[in-house]
Amino acid sequence: MIEGLDALKLPDSGARIEPYWEHARAGRLALPRCAGCGRVHWYPRAMCPFCLSDDIQWEESSGRGTIYSFSVMRTKSPYVVAYVRLDEGVTLMTNIVDCDIESLQIGQAVSVRFVTRASVQVPVFTIADQTGGSR
Asked: Distance from first CA to last CA of the chain, Å, rounded?
């Protein structure tokens, strides 16, 4: 169990962001792109935070990124909370899982995977190997 995910605030589940959840159920990370200004944004929502357009399109992310910042929560079962900068340019708060906490570094390559929490699939990241996949 990843302690930090238990208190995770999930994005809204309205029909306008249902494509996000469809992708997540299939183990893929979808990002919203505004058709008005062309910018990708995070977190999933029905309106562009840059130009306020509601013309949002969904595209599949590569699922690859780098650790921008992280903190180790040293509880009974230590866990990592991190900001990950995706290759697509957005940054999201997440957990880094299945890793050697002591060897984590800012700038380290990571790749997405999904875990079930509160009966939905949520993205977490693990250290990527040299070929860009998960270890």
From this structure: 19
Structural element, H or E, at residue 70: strand 64-73
- Strands 64-73 and 109-117, by their bridges, are antiparallel
Structure tokens at 135: 């270890």
Per-domain residue ranges of the chain = 3-127
The alpha carbon of residue 65 and the mean position of all alpha carbons in its chain are separated, in whole angstroms, by 10
Q: How far apart are CA 4 and CA 98, in angstroms?
A: 14
Per-residue burial over 113-125, b if 16 or more Cβ lie within 10 Å, else e, is bbeebeeebbbbb
Per-residue pLDDT of the chain (135 residues; tens, 9 = 90+): 455 545 445 555 566 778 888 999 999 999 999 999 999 999 888 889 999 999 999 999 999 999 999 999 998 999 999 999 999 999 999 999 999 999 999 999 999 999 998 888 999 999 997 544 554
Supply 1's token pair.
């169990």
Give me the architecture of the 3-127 domain, per CATH: Beta Barrel (2.40)
